[in-house]
Amino acid sequence: MQVPISTSEVLDAMRAVTITDISTRAEFKSAIRACLVKSEDHRHAFDTVFELYFAPPVPDSAEDSGNGRLVAPLESLSDAELREILIDAAATEGDTLLREIANVTVNRHAGIQPGRAVAGTFYTYRAMRAMGADSLVTDILSRSRHDDRPMTRLATRMAREHAENRVERFRQLVESRIRIALVADRGADAVAATLRTPLPEDSDFLTASSEQIAAMRTVMDPLGRKLASALTDKRKRSGRQVVDIRRTIRGSMSTGGIPLDLRMAEPRPSKPKLVVLADISGSVATFAEFTLRLMSALRMEFASLRSFVFIDGVDEVTHIFAEASTIVEASARINNEKLGVWLDGRSDYGHALEDFADRCLHDLDSRSTVLILGDARNNYHNPRADILDVVRARAGHLYWLNPEKQVLWNSGDSVISEYSKHCDEVHECRNIRQLAAFVEALD
């Protein structure tokens, strides 16, 4: 688990500490978080690491828990009674009561075993299961209804989101209490070693969980805008400078017509053309989705952007991305129309490349950049790597992005070495960060 932090941000945090009351844990945490966390996606990672290395002492009794008058009565309640109070507390705002219920729940049901090297996920599961987590949202919604009058769709949606957020907050408090106990038992470093999960931009395309995929999607749109701006600036800087004759002559009037100060014209580099050929077979479908999502966000930075998908055949989907309002709608249409399938729907790069050359070769020129996305696992068919020589001869650049770990290349039915001979560059591209780095480096 890591949050990208620069040296200047560390120095800012150190300065903030000098003017903060470090004896007040909440104030200390807020000060350094304001200096180190730049994205809401990174906040939970920061909070987790802070709890590991600046954990409060584990309470030995109700009196030591921070609110002894509140905890003692809670400990005397049955699980059913405790859950009723949890539902009431979750229907309102504030964390004080939720935190104490979490403490009692963990003490009673987590079953933490001293010395066991685990991350605490199972302990969290046991504690949440004891509180009937699966139906908490529904029960909170029922409790928050004060009459039988129907609610508007907006009011219903807002109420559900509030209930879901409150249940998630309770789960975070349970996790926090468990981590404090684990740190007290094994130390912060030992617990940190069991909690190393990637940030959304570092999650592996091919092994990401559904939660990680959802988190990855949230960073794609701002990333697309950022890269679009970077590509525009790069082309302006790399453009050939030309003297603006009119401005130069006008400026020379003050020096007797001698052009001492050359005025340069604004660079206006021509936009490149991009052709994307993406493998959408099951093994790399997630990778293809995110790459096409990013390319769609960058389409205004290219003179033209054509997108093709393939499994054992090739179909152009440029019009689908133009017509669809979201990438989800476009992906659904590609799946429903069974695009990219020619015969049996099993990867056949050789036939796909043949089909692609027949459809697109005559449209390629020196301004074209061809980008192939796939793991090059060809089910032992003829790879037809020679076709890439023809494509590269027509296009300005030919790049291949492979979502597999490089150590797995050329194992089994992978023929990436056959294709790499005919490409300008072949890159490992397993996550959003690597994908962004590649796009930023495009000419």
What would you note in describing this structure?
This protein is of the alpha/beta class and 443 residues long. The protein folds into 3 domains: 55-197, no CATH class; 210-238 and 270-440, Rossmann fold, CATH 3.40.50; 241-269, no CATH class. Helices cover 51% and strands 7% of the residues. It has helices at 7-18, 25-36, 43-53, 68-75, 79-90, 96-110, 121-130, 136-144, 153-186, 188-192, 210-238, 245-251, 285-297, 318-323, 327-336, 349-360, 386-394, 416-420, 432-440; strands at residues 273-279, 304-310, 314-316, 368-373, 397-402, 425-428. A 6-stranded mixed β-sheet has the order 3-2-1-4-5-6, with helices on both faces. 31% of the residues are buried. The model is unreliable at 61-65 (pLDDT under 50).
- The chain-level mean pLDDT equals 82
Could you give me the name of the CATH homologous superfamily of the largest domain? von Willebrand factor, type A domain
Cα end-to-end separation: 33 Å
Widest sheet, order of strands:
3-2-1-4-5-6
What proportion strand? 5-15%
Overall form: globular
Helical amount: 40-55%
What is the alpha-carbon Rg in Å? Answer: 29 Å
- CATH topology of the largest domain, what is it called? Rossmann fold
